[in-house]
């Protein structure tokens, strides 16, 4: 680590204030070019601690940067990981206030809910599927705190991978006998299809993202508890949204979920 605790805490406060006040900022590596990966995740952890100190509970975990092409573009070999607190959760069919966000985008995802704990190292697709209770459709609303969505990898990790809101719904599906690689999705905005894809777009298999998350946490002496909801990463590119938009995600064999922006 290159940053001291005071700097890490100050950056976490700065990023959270940007989120709570819906205002953007320059990426933090502009002022702290020497910060490393551990600094970035330490800032993210300090962000979570700030929310938990106000009584907010953890609602789930998430993976980002889950496309091989995007990882190659960014020069990394692993996705990035973050979390969602309960204030990020939107009811199925619920509303999101755009006045509370900066420049929101939506991503279609497959959400996993665990029936057993997961821990690394050595976690793999088979371990994940054996520990999964069910999967269901999920839409993540990302909202980078960085101006014009321009950031580097360390800055976005510190910003909790742009997490902002999420919704899950539809029909939970057991994974036994299912090939999540070939599960198709369609995301619609205002009734018009805007994104198409399949589970294989996430690291070849969406459970790979969950395994990588478990191994990432295992390296830090942590595990993923049973019952945890995990968003496995965007299947397609994110789609911008604005007040008045309605978004629906349809996932093969799992029904649909959606939300509205006001």
TrEMBL record:
It holds the Pfam family FAA_hydrolase. It comes from Hydrogenophaga electricum. PANTHER family: 2-KETO-4-PENTENOATE HYDRATASE, ACID HYDRATASE. Signal peptide: none annotated. InterPro entries: 4-oxalocrotonate_decarboxylase (IPR017630), Fumarylacetoacetase-like_C (IPR011234), Fumarylacetoacetase_C_sf (IPR036663), Hydratase-Decarb/MhpD_sf (IPR050772). This is 4-oxalocrotonate decarboxylase. It comes from the Bacteria. Keywords: Lyase. Residues 77-256 form the Fumarylacetoacetase-like C-terminal domain.
């Amino acid at each position: 680590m290159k940053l001291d605790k005071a700097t890490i805490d100050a950056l976490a406060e700065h990023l959270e204030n940007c989120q709570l006040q819906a205002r953007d900022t320059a990426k933090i590596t502009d002022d702290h070019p020497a910060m490393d990966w551990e600094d970035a995740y330490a800032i993210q952890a300090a962000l979570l601690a700030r929310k938990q100190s106000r009584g907010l509970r953890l609602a789930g975990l998430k993976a980002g940067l889950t496309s091989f092409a995007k990882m190659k573009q960014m020069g990394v070999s692993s996705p990035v990981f973050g979390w969602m607190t309960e204030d990020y959760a939107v009811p199925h069919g619920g509303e999101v206030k755009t006045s509370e966000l900066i420049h929101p985008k939506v991503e279609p995802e497959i959400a996993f809910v665990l029936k057993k704990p997961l821990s690394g190292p050595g976690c793999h697709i088979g371990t994940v599927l054996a520990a999964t209770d069910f999967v269901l459709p999920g839409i993540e609303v990302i909202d980078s705190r960085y101006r014009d969505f321009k950031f580097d990898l360390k800055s976005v990790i510190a910003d909790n991978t742009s997490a902002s809101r999420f919704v899950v719904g539809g029909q939970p599906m057991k994974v036994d006998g299912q090939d999540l690689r070939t599960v198709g999705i369609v995301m619609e905005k205002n009734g018009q299809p805007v994104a198409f894809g399949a589970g294989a777009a996430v690291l070849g298999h969406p459970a790979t993202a969950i395994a990588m998350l478990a191994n990432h946490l295992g390296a830090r002496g942590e595990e993923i508890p049973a019952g945890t909801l995990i968003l496995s990463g965007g299947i397609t590119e994110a789609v911008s949204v604005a007040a008045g938009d309605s978004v629906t995600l349809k996932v093969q064999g799992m029904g649909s979920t959606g939300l509205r922006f006001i």
